[in-house]
Amino acid sequence: MKAGIICIGDELLIGQTVNTNAAWIGQEFGKFGISVYKSTTIRDVKEDIVQTVDEYLNEADLIIVTGGLGPTNDDITKETLTEYFGTTLALNDQVLHRVKSFFELRGKKMLDSNIQQAMLPKDAIILENLHGTASGMWFEKNGKILVSLPGVPYEMEALISMEVLPRVKATFGIESNYHQTLMLQGIGESYLAELIIDWENRIYKNGLHLAYLPSSGLIKLRLSSENGVEDSAKIESYFNEIRRDLPQFAYGMNEESIFEVVGELLKSSHKTLGTIESCTGGGIANSFIAKSGSSAFFNGGLITYSNELKQKLAKVSKDTLDKFGAVSEEVAIEMAIGGQKELDVDYAIAVTGIAGPEGGTEKKPVGTVWIAVATPEGVFTKHYLFGEHRGRNIEKTQLYAANLLRKLILGIAENENN
User: Fold this and answer.
1) Of 154, 199, 283, 380, which sits most exposed with the smallest number of CB within 10 A?
2) Domains of the chain in sequence order
3) How many CB atoms lie within 10 A of CB 175?
4) Model confidence pLDDT, tens digit, residues 43-64
5) Would you say the C-alpha torsion 121, 122, 126, 132 has a positive or negative sign?
6) Of 131, 135, 3, 139, nearest in space to 60 by CA
7) Which whole-number Å values give the CA distances from 246 to 183, 197, 380, 403, in the listed order?
8) What pLDDT digit, counting tens, does each position of 380-389 carry?
9) What whole-number distance in Å separates Cα of residue 107 and Cα of residue 109?
10) Whole-number Å distance between alpha carbons of 146 and 144
């Protein structure tokens, strides 16, 4: 089946709010073999809504509309769609009771504008929103379905999962596609494609679908099958080949964070970790403690952005700083060794670099990063030259540092012993 997405809101068009809804819906629908052929963002203006809905109803089986359902006067999507589908608004007592309870539970006064949230089209199926006051609305016309949902992401996502997808599956008789995703870190998309070209050809001959999903520092390989879970063993077997042949890159499955993977390795081996960070400003530590239970392996971190704090907290020698500069292998090594001792940990990750966009030189351009990991066996280092974008440099440093530690724990690190 063919689906389209219409996102309504001036805040999306001017970039005040990032439109994550379309991406989430596309990913979720893909799991069920629903093809999203187009996504459009428009103003909450009657003419724009009518024109876009006309276009989509001519082309798609299912249209998802998000946004424009708030209680304020500038939200006119509900009124416009009610008129478009030839029905009228009426007070929905069940929704009114839910809206009243919503405010009572929070100790807030319900305004007249909030009562208007219970005025809903008589000839639409009303979808109960358990997380907000704007209900979802399911319209049908000439065998086509249009679903209007609130734009607040967590409200929209809950309605899609609990209300929309079950109804769509019942209406169109769709079955879930089966797919699994292998997570890789530290390899470029084109280089990976070249390494696995024979593997990829076998994938297609076996009737599976492969997608490369690259992002900064990561690649996701998604294998999917229209036969459902009966192909699960086949997909697992193919991914096992990648894990066997490329263990330095393949670290996890299905959106699994590399920091969670490393954390579990540390916990299972009863080892502890500390971080000594310069260019990442505490980002590595923050990534490791994002999941509950990190206190079982993470002792603490030092943010040594200045040379003074590198000396004071990580015990880096002033002579080393003067001779080699803050962004150097020698300083990274001393940061890791000093941090390992000061934090009393088994493993210590140290990073120092030039995130940019300023501060680079001919010998040390923006994007230069040194990563050092102190282990019970010694110190291992790695040098990178990432690029000119500050945010991506910081993000990549964090990911590459975590993966270097993973490889060291598993005994698959490169020859970087100092």
Assistant:
1) 154
2) 2-172 (3.40.980.10), 178-253 (3.30.70.600), 258-410 (3.90.950.20)
3) 11
4) 999 999 999 999 999 999 999 9
5) positive
6) 3
7) 11, 14, 20, 13
8) 999 999 999 9
9) 7
10) 7
